[in-house]
Amino acid sequence: MQTIEQWLNANGTPIEPASSQVAYAEAVSEDGNVVAAVLLNDHTFIARAGAPGSGGDMGGIIAG
């Protein structure tokens, strides 16, 4: 098992572990390419790891 930070780093979205505010993952897509998670401040975010050629540069984080 890996942390969300490790997963993001492995998929091209570097996160500094010291500055991470991720509390926990709420859901993971069946293919493992999308994670919905909660930050320590109770805000939510969605992170998507898109494979090259899968429809554009869609990797990264959407915070809410």
Keywords:
mainly beta
Q: What is the number of helices?
A: 1
Q: N-to-C SSE series? A: HEEEE
Mean pLDDT: 79
Q: In percent, how much strand structure appears in the residues? A: 25-35%
| Rg on CA atoms, Å | 11 Å
Largest sheet: 4 strands, antiparallel
Give the overall shape, derived from the CA principal axes. globular
Distance between the termini: 26 Å
Structural class by secondary-structure content: mainly beta
How many separate structural domains? Answer: 1
Could you walk me through the main structural features you see in this protein, from its secondary elements to its overall organization?
This protein has 64 residues and is mainly beta. The protein has one domain. It is built from one helix and four strands. The radius of gyration is 11 Å and the shape is globular. The mean pLDDT is 79.
What is the compact description of this entry?
With 64 residues, the protein is mostly beta strands. The chain has 1 helix and 4 strands; from the N terminus they run αββββ.
Architecture blueprint of SSEs:
Layout (H helix, E strand, L loop, with lengths): L3 H7 L11 E7 L5 E6 L4 E5 L11 E4 L1
Antiparallel strand pairs: 1-2, 2-3, 3-4
